[in-house]
Amino acid sequence: MEFLWPLLGGAVGAAIINGIVGYLRLRADRRDADSKWKREQDQAHESWIRDKKTEAYTEFLEEVQAFIHQFSRYNNEHGTTVQQVLAASGVVKNHRLLLLASSEVRMAQRALGMEINRSRRILSQPQPPQPRDPILAELSHQFHGKRDALLAAAQRDLGITETDGVPIIEVIKP
Questions:
Q1: CA-to-CA distance for 58 and 89, rounded, in angstroms?
Q2: Residue 128: which of 83, 78, 172 has the closest Cα?
């Protein structure tokens, strides 16, 4: 019977050690699962934000391009009136852009918006410039430069580069 006590003590000791190790492993697994869930949620949120930014940037750039197209048609005497250009400038909205954009994109948008407002003031004069006026050519040049700066800022904000093999956001050309 003396051999029974060490055998019984070893079994109880092993059960206690296995219980402690099991408990510690369960806590570590739970902590790892919580950490993994948090990482997945963060990644899903970042992806959602990036998708919404892409939509907002694309929508805004399409509106800007439509305005630039109408402006160019007026400047090149292709049957567009001053009223049509002014109407196209009123379509350019930036509400979503202001909510989602980085400060660099907002600054580029503001600069472009100032040029659009400048064109509205010039074209709203009692005697607006006629097509092919040098001021219109200068405005057109400013629009394209500011639009390209906005596009570059949006691409940087989205982490899109030409070397990634990912297509660059393209401005819709009517």
A1: 17
A2: 83
First CA to last CA across the chain, in angstroms?
97
pLDDT by residue (tens digit) across 48-59?
Answer: 988 999 888 888
Do the beta carbons of residue 124 and residue 86 sit within 8 Å?
Answer: yes
CA atoms within 13 A on the CB side of 114: 9
In angstroms, the CA 70 to CA 86 distance is: 9
Neighbours of 95 (CB within 10 A): 9
pLDDT in tens, 37-79: 888 888 998 999 889 998 888 888 888 888 888 888 888 877 7
Distance CA 166, CA 174 (A): 23
DSSP string, 3-54: THHHHHHHHHHHHHHHHHHHHHHHHHHHHHHHHHHHHHHHHHHHHHHHHHHH
SS3 171: coil
* CB burial of residue 147 (10 Å; 0-12, 13-18, 19+): buried
Half-sphere exposure of 161 (CA within 13 A, CB side): 3
